[in-house]
Design goal:
This protein is mainly α. About 55% of the residues lie in helices and about 0% in strands. The protein contains 14 helices and four strands. The strands form two sheets. The protein has a two-stranded parallel sheet. Strands 2-3 form a two-stranded antiparallel sheet. The chain binds stearoyl-coenzyme A (ST9) and zinc ion (2 copies). One zinc ion binds next to helix 2 and helix 4. Stearoyl-coenzyme A binds near residues 44, 120, 143, 162 and 267.
Length: about 350
């Protein structure tokens, strides 16, 4: 195994067009052993209690949504759900974890704000865990190792202490590009107040101030928005690591999952993503229908705030599918859907 894996950058050259990768080199995943005995979990009761509260509150919010919430409050919750999710997909994931495109400062500011709204930890922490997830995928060192089952990959990993391998192997992953970025350092340092203000204070106060919503409706609908955002993200770790075809690499568990892709704004095409992690689209096909994050980045590329978008050429995809795919890829009959 090649131990110098970097999941953020392709080893390939960018073509003169600036976008297409014309060569393919497999992304090595370091094989750390999985425990043979079932692992003994150390529960983190604070998190367990908070997540139970969040999920029960979200059920109550569903009742409020159909009984007393104002339409604008519901619209806001839906809108903020998408904004937060885009902050994760286009910011924490495609920009900062994988460096699959570059962003100018105004776009970075917008994305940090959106990522904070999603409350899924600071960009530095999110991207560190995600790089570790790619490099040590489905081993003890993977923070949400899907070999431990659906529940662990979905949320259990946030309810228990990490496997020692996550910490020791995680230290070998370079995140200096993130820790050297002043904007990300600022967000990380002041994460708690920034997150409380952005993810809880603003979404609760805006409906009360601007359209006279009650505190109760405002608070609980925002919790529902947060809970949905988390569960949609977690589905990429759980469902998209278990269910779906493997047209690009049949030797890995991440799979092509349309339902997750639609919910998670394009992040369910997980077999493609683990095969070609440097592609800014995180998928081969789809844009507006099942990959809204790509449409978002393309929009900012048009106005010049996003640039150096990396993508994999069709030839490379075709060759790779023929070599390692499960045979479900339509290698001869390509056409873009959008
Ligand atoms: C949340 C995150 O929900 C969701 C992320 C999902 C990721 C998805 C990725 C796949 C999808 C990709 C596509 C995107 C899809 C998006 C779709 C959206 C539509 N490397 O953590 P500690 C070290 S967050 C290196 O305390 P414990 C490090 O030194 C929700 N080192 O470990 C660290 O120190 P420091 C809200 C590492 O005690 C030290 O260990 N947030 C690594 O075992 C201690 O770390 C929460 O719920 C590493 N990977 O506790 C918070 N990891 O802190 C939940 C650790 O200085 N977290 N180290 O860095 C916690 O409470 C705790 O982390 C814990 C573990 C209890 C889970
Ligand atoms: Zn994954
Ligand atoms: Zn990724």
């Amino acid at each position: 195994q090649n131990n110098t894996c970097d999941t953020t950058m392709s080893p390939n050259q960018i073509t003169p067009t600036g976008v297409l990768m014309e060569t393919d080199e497999e992304v090595p995943v370091e094989q750390i052993k999985n425990d043979e005995e079932p692992r003994k979990y150390i529960y983190v009761w604070r998190n367990i209690i908070l997540y139970i509260y969040l999920h029960i509150s979200s059920l109550y919010a569903l009742y409020l949504l159909f009984s007393s919430a104002k339409l604008l409050t519901v619209v806001q919750a839906f809108f903020l759900l998408q904004i937060g999710n885009l902050g994760i997909t286009c910011g924490a994931h495609r920009l900062w974890s994988h460096k699959s495109y570059k962003a100018k400062t105004p776009l970075k500011i917008i994305l940090v704000f959106m990522e904070t709204l999603a409350f899924q930890n600071s960009v530095i922490e999110w991207a560190r865990d995600h790089r570790v997830h790619h490099k040590f995928s489905e081993t003890n060192a993977d923070p949400h190792n899907a070999k431990r089952g659906f529940f662990f990959a979905h949320v259990g990993w946030l309810l228990t202490r990490r496997h020692p391998d996550v910490k020791s192997k995680g230290k070998t992953v370079d995140i200096s590009d993130l820790t050297n970025d002043p904007m990300l350092r600022f967000q990380h340092k002041h994460y708690l107040p920034l997150m409380i203000f952005t993810a809880f204070f603003l979404p609760t106060v805006i409906p009360m101030y601007f359209w006279g919503e009650t505190f109760r409706n405002s608070w609980f609908l925002n919790l529902l928005r947060y809970c949905l955002g988390l569960n949609i993200t977690w589905l990429v770790n759980s469902a998209a690591h278990m269910f779906g075809g493997k047209p690009y690499d049949r030797f890995i568990n991440p799979a092509e999952n349309l339902s997750v892709a639609a919910l998670a704004l394009g992040e369910g095409w997980h077999n493609y993503h683990h095969t070609f992690p440097w592609d800014y689209k995180t998928s081969e096909l789809g844009k507006y229908s099942s990959n809204f994050s790509t449409a978002f980045i393309d929009f900012f590329a048009r106005i010049g705030w996003a640039y150096d978008l990396k993508a994999v050429s069709k030839e490379v995809i075709k060759k790779r599918s023929l070599r390692t795919g499960d045979g479900t890829h339509n290698v001869w009959g390509w056409k873009d859907k959008d």
